[in-house]
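Worked example

This section walks through a single chain of length 773. The input is the sequence exactly as stored; nothing has been trimmed or padded.
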Amino acid sequence: MKGTVTDGKLPVEFVDVILKNANDSTKTANYTVTDASGNFSLENIAEGQYKLYFKLIGFKTIIKKIQFTGSPVSAGTIVLQNDTNLLNTVVVNSQKKQIQKTDEGFIFNAASSISQSGGTATDMLKNIPTVAVDAEGSITLRGKSPLILINGKNSAITNMDQIAASSIESIEIISSPTAKYDANAESGIINIKLKKNNQSGMNGAMALGSGFGAKERINSSVLLNHKTEKWNFGLGYDNRFAGRTKKIKADRTNYFIDDEHLIQQNRSDQRTEGLQNLKLNIDFSPNERNSFSFEALGNTESQDNDETLFTQVNTSTNSFFSNTRRHSLELERSKAGELAFNYDRKFSDDRKNLNASLTSSFNKHKENTNIDTYNYDEYQQQINDASLQRTHNYEHENISNAILNYTFPAAEKSIVETGYKGTFRFFNSDFESSDKVNGEYVINPLSSNSFDFNEQINAVYGLLNSFIGEKENPKWKYNLGLRAENVSNTGATKNNRDRFNNDYLKLFPSASLQWNLASNEFVKIGYSKRINRPDLDDLNPFIDITDALNPHGGNPYLKPEIIHIAEISYLKNWSAYSFSANAFYRNAADAIRQYAELYDNGVILLQPRNIGTTVTYGLETIFSLKPISFYDANISLTAFQQNINASNLAQDVVSSAFSLYGKIINNFVPWKGGKLQLIGNYNSALATPQGKRIPIYNIDMGFQQKLGKGNARLGLVVTDVFNTLKSGYKNNTLLFSSNRTNKSDTRALMVTFAYTFKSDFKEKMLENQFSTE
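Given that input, the structure is written out below as tokens.
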């Protein structure tokens, strides 16, 4: 059953569409909410007589009688009328549904997150159910790094701090990807969809925010859009400038080394960062069946980091061994861009569709650092002159995608999806280190290197979707898929000192079976095979010796992880509540983890290694509730057990660990036009091969108030209200123990003002600061 809801002029979204049995209006047979185009769709309906209710505060409720015989039914266009009496007294405003469940996971609407105004994609991901983000910005799902896509495609924009939160439309979490998706997604996929307005006429908006943490912060956004019958033009710009501080404390004990026995380090960072984004989109639809689109993204990022590191080393008898102060001024500049062409073809049979796209993105990164190191004796007197060093690291990455997808009916109850995806990546890194000798900087060949990497991934897939039972109310749904990926890559350092080649073809099957217990309840089981290919940082063999006692680098001899995953899911919806649970089992061979190796001189080298096998099993739950009209909440909890067999490395590697993380998102409407949001986040200690990451917990708060007729909004955000967010780890092995904590100025206050140029603009620009009402 399908239809459209308007107010007589424009489509109306967020309308509650409720289907009830005509003979028993106390029972809800089905439920949905209209989308941004006013459209709605109800599935899995048994034959019978019904009443269809259309409800939205500020409008009169409309009731329509429906006779359903099993054939597709169109409710046509429903026109809502304003309820004048209600508008004079209403306090609660309708808002976009925060979580929208899908067959493969869920979609988190950015409009519902008002607690990250002026932040980045990293900040927004911190407040999304089932996603864990530590204070260093590391993103994980179910304990592992996910595959992150931008608008459904691989991108050279891999740093989530390069994407402003104000430019995000929604974030899709695909925890159970089928063969249609890249196999390189062990823990799942995060797809970040950027905003794109398509409202008729000329529209526009602007927003300006300012605040402070330890230092000042400012951000602004502007969006213009013009749409005609066949054309749509959009232009958007946003920026973010902030100052930040960070303090790091670390200590390490090397048990069997007498001289470099006890190491204590304290580091202080002063950072200034800037971010600017420019987006252009052009869409052309010559008719109802064909549409073309072009998108261009531009991004510049700057970061200046003034860092001071103090290192004290004592012997096993606690006598003085060495004392150094290292000061560095690091200047980073990045430029990123992306071009995308898309073509969509629709057919008279809506089960048939053709889509093709070409994208290409690049990222150029420059980092220049001046370093001075001072040595002191046990009486804090300087020894000799300071050693001066200068480094640069220039990186260039390009990623292109060619995608073709075709969907067609294979039978009355079956649809086949098939397609091709080609991913082509080029990466070059040039690192140079120079020491000042006799007044001149001389290149140090031992600490300078370059790295070239080329990769091609050609993939084809086929996916069969089918059902058993009535078309509009299937009892069973299932899919069977197979994906083939051929990977060919080469990497080499300067003069081919380190060189590797990989060329392999692997098959990745997937399958799922869903049992519909009722129109609002189902159980689903699934299986998939996936891969975790080492990324560029993992493969780059260059050793960074910036911190001489704790160097780190990549490992060109890494093998990809092969993972087998089994899942069982359950979903139940009520009128004011919903609950979903996902139990998962993951078995990974040649698991890739960071591993620290201690040398006789007290230096620890951190490199990724294939540590053996890892078995992970756990439960992921999401519970949404709206018990009263002015309050709703979302509660999520993920708990999992990890069993690690790393006998190929050392006997003291952690063998098992239990972890959990959870979030609670509370939304209040205290009065007309106002909204308050409180988000609590907790991540327990997470196992590492040689220890554990420390727990993480914080609370964020956001408030918004509509001004005047609603064209203007005022927002207030306080992140990490109690200043508790920090990260770190504790390692305990037979050879050494170490502790490290990292504390940034995560507590910050931001005030944002936003204004729409035109009252019928749907406020796409404001959706991260201000929820659409």
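What to look for: Residues 86-95, 759-773 have pLDDT under 50 and may be disordered.
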